[in-house]
Amino acid sequence: MSNLVHRQRTLVGLGLVLTTSVAVGPVHAAGADSAPTGSDTTHRVVSVVQKISTVIGSSGVRREETGDRVEVALSAGVLFGKDSARLSASAERRIAEAARSIREAGSSAVAVAGHTDDLGSAAHGLTLSKQRADAVTRVLQRHLPNKVRLSARGYGEARPVADNRDEAGRKQNRRVTLTFHHGR
């Protein structure tokens, strides 16, 4: 069983590389020892994975695209003061930039999710993350057409993206994410 794998690497800016992989050949279950049947011998594209992750403007904003799904992560450190849901002076501009991306994508729905690190009680983190998601949602409402549905949810410490054992990881976990899709 042999699959041809083609990997293409493309420089997308800021030193980031986009890698796409396409496997073409007989398709078998992993670890299968049986010989291919007639229908297995057709050549198919097994997978194409395309993920772009860029840093926009500063380390406080991250954007990832997978297919038509877009996630913009705004660092809580640039949006809010410590242990606060009150937006900073620069937060409006950053949220307005995110709203422009949502409008350009032609999205009709945005999920706003607040996240915290694991310092303090889980209950406090859950409340704070929801308050932060609500604060960002209120600003987004001013910058998006009324037809765009917004939902806000707080996850507290439940969905970390980094290790909470050091400050660098905790800083990455304190964020508000905006998830939307191109054209829907």
Provide structural commentary:
The model is unreliable at 1-57 (pLDDT under 50). The protein has helices at 76-79, 91-105, 122-143, 167-173, and strands at 4-13, 16-25, 44-48, 51-55, 61-66, 69-75, 109-115, 149-154, 175-181. It has 184 residues and is an alpha+beta fold. It has four helices and nine strands. The longest helix is centred in the last third of the chain and has 22 residues, at 122-143. Helix 2 (91-105) crosses helix 3 (122-143). It has two domains: 1-49, no CATH class; 51-181, 60s Ribosomal Protein L30, Chain: A.
Secondary structure elements and pairings:
Layout: E1 4-13, E2 16-25, E3 44-48, E4 51-55, E5 61-66, E6 69-75, H1 76-79, H2 91-105, E7 109-115, H3 122-143, E8 149-154, H4 167-173, E9 175-181
Parallel strand pairs: 7-8
Antiparallel strand pairs: 1-2, 2-3, 4-5, 5-6, 6-9, 7-9
